Amino acid sequence: MxxxxxxxxxxxxxxxxxxxxxQRDDPRLRRRPVIVGGGVVLAASYEAKxxxxxxxxxxxxxxxxxxxxxxxxxxxxxxxEASRRVFALFRDTTPEVEGLSIDEAFLEVGGLARIAGTPRxxxxxxxxxxxxxxxxxxxxxxxxxxFLAKVASGASKPDGLLVVDPAREREFLHPLPVxxxxxxxxxxxxxxxxxxxxxxxxxxxxxxxxxxSYLGPAAGRHLHALAHLRDPRPVDTxxxxxxxxxxxxxxRRPRTDAELDGxxxxxVDRLARRLRAPRGSDRDEPDETLDMDGPSxxxxxxxxxxxxxxxxxxxxxxxxxxxxxxxxxxxxxxATAHTPTILSAARRLLGDALPEIHARGITLLGxxxxxxxxxxxxxxxxxxxxxxxxxxDTALDAVRSRFGSASVGRASRLGQDEGLQVPLLPEHE
Length: 429
What we know:
Helix content is 38%, strand content 18%. The protein has 429 residues and is α+β, with helices and mostly antiparallel strands.
C-alpha cells in the first residue's frame, strides 16, 4: 500500500459560508451574530455560534439562545457566485482540486515545491487571496492524508491555518474525541461511549476485532484504519457522485397524505432531472431543500440529453415528530432515469412508512438516488430503443432548460411552497 511521507494535501473550508457572505456584503452585519434562514438555521456566524446556535437548529430555538441575532433570508445566487470565485482561486493554485461541496475542497500541492514553495506557504497565500479577492475567511488544514487535513482545518477554525507534521500525527490525532473520526455520528459515538471509548486513542487501543464486534465489519475496519493513521486515498480530480439527494424540513404542523405525496413527487421530478442532466454542467440545481416555515445543461437539437446518469436504488428518509429517523430503500431491477419508475418506487416506500408517520408525525422528508452509473453504460432490453418511455421526461427537461425550472410543474403543487433550493457543487467530466 502506498503511504505518503510528506504533508502535501490541503483541506480548504470556508468559515460559516452563507453567514460570511452576508457579513461581507452588508457592513452592518460584521462582528454581529447573524443567522441565515428563519424556520431552520441554514448558517450561523461565529458570533451566533458562541451563544450555542448551530446549523439545522429550529429557528425559534436559535432566537431564544441568541435574541440579539440578526436573522437574514438566504440568497442562494450570491452563495453560488462566491463559491465559483473561490473555486477559481483553488484551481489557480493547483490543478489537483477535489471539490467536496460548494464551500470546501481538497488540494494536492506536492508537485509545486520548486515553483510555489512549501505547502504551508502555498496555504498561507491561498488564504490571503481568498480574503482579498473573494472577501471571505477560510480555514486550511495541511497534512499527509485527506482525513488528517480535514481534521486539521476543523481544528484551525475560525479563519486559521494548521499544518500537521507527519512526525507528530499521532500526538495531534489521538487526544481528539471519537466524533473527530470520519463516519462517527451520534449513534456510533454512543455505542463507543458505552464501552468506555471516548478518544481516538481509545479507538486505537481497542483493536480491530473488538471494533468489528461492536460496530460491524465495515465500520470497525474503517475506524481502526483511521485511528492508526491509515488513509491512502489520493486527491481525486475526477471524483463523481455515487448518489444525489434532496430533503425537506417540514416544521411540526401535521401534513396530509396528499401533501406528502405532492412533496415527494416534486422531489422526484427534481432529482430525476438532475440524473438526466449532462455531467459537467455548471448550472446550480438543488442538493437539499428546506421549508423555511418550520445541473441541467445544454441538449442536442433534437431535445435528447447529451449525457447523464441512471440509478438503481431509491432511498427514503423520514424524521418523525420526536426527531427519530428511519431510512427505507428499494433497488430497481433495471437502472433508470425514468421519472414515473422512480416515483412509483418512492411512493411504495412512503406508503409503507405512512402508518408510523400518522402515529408519530413527520418533520422531514428526504429522498436519495444511489448506485448511479452513466446512462451510456445501460444494458438495453427489448425493444432495443434507448428512448422508449422517457420521451416525456426529455421534452419536459427541454422546456425547463429553456424557460426555467418553474415553467412546468405538477398541477398538485400549484400555489404550494417548493422550499428553498440550495446550490450544488458542479460535477466535472
